[in-house]
Predict the 3D structure of the following.
Amino acid sequence: PVQILTYLDGVVKVEETELKPRVGFLYPVLTHNISVFINATRERDSGQYICTVNVVDDATPMGRNVGVINLTVLVPPAVPACQLHGNPTVGANVTLSCSSKKGKPSPMYQWERTDPTPQVFFPPAQDLARGTLRLTNLSLEMSGLYVCTAENRAGFEKCSIVLEV
């Protein structure tokens, strides 16, 4: 554990960490609310934070005045990359893939064809976790614009690919 913030004898001290310019007490400490803020959160701020309160002449045994919270900083998906795997000829099979380099939690992927006729896809043709869409026995009518949406609780991004059979 690394000490980040202390209040002792009326003095607030912020330790030399990467959090120093972004952390502090939310309220004046003597209000008895020792909530802490972290500004401009980053993914690496995720982790376990422990608050320890030591009161002079307090008869409470050590370890009783401890609060623990786990912080998970969510990260929206990065713009995904759409790719075509296979030879898009009549009667052939191809796979469209979509993947995002960043995202916490891991994004889920949804494919749809937008033009010329809207169409949504379901498993087993589409793998929501892997971001793949398998198109079998291609026909000319399957040509069009295919859009992939990478989404998690923090946001979403899209990419697209034109399939010409």
User: Anything to note?
Assistant: The two ends are 58 Å apart (CA to CA). The longest strand covers residues 144-152. The chain has two domains: 5-71, 81-163. The CA atoms of residues 114 and 145 lie 6 Å apart.
